[in-house]
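1st attempt posting a full record on here, be nice pls
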Amino acid sequence: MFLLEINIVERLRESLPAWEVLGFSTGKGNRDAAALVSVMFAAGALADVKEGAVALAPGWSVLLSVKRGPAAAALLDTGIAKVVERLHNWVPGEAGGRKWGALKLARFSPPEFADGGLIGIELLFSTTGRYFGQE
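the predicted structure (as tokens):
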């Protein structure tokens, strides 16, 4: 499940060249970029439970943050459009030895920043993957 981060980060990097795109567990480097996308596991639910198998529905947060200034609103609006375009209904394929369903935008909200001169938005995408237990 956590290996999905790599697939999501790679997909976003392709379409957001003006942004620094980092995974929470895999990203190394400066998180003080003027335009930063941070991808991380942020929620979880059970999609269904059956004898012998369970479908997990992880939520992946895509946090866009920019430094305040004259270009901030336009940069965020463009970033939001690109993230939704690239991730909503996209099938990330296999990660961690299982196939994952299409990502769906589940919610969006303002992030909780300590006032450090940043503004942004958090988009949460959900997907499902089946895990097998005892028959």
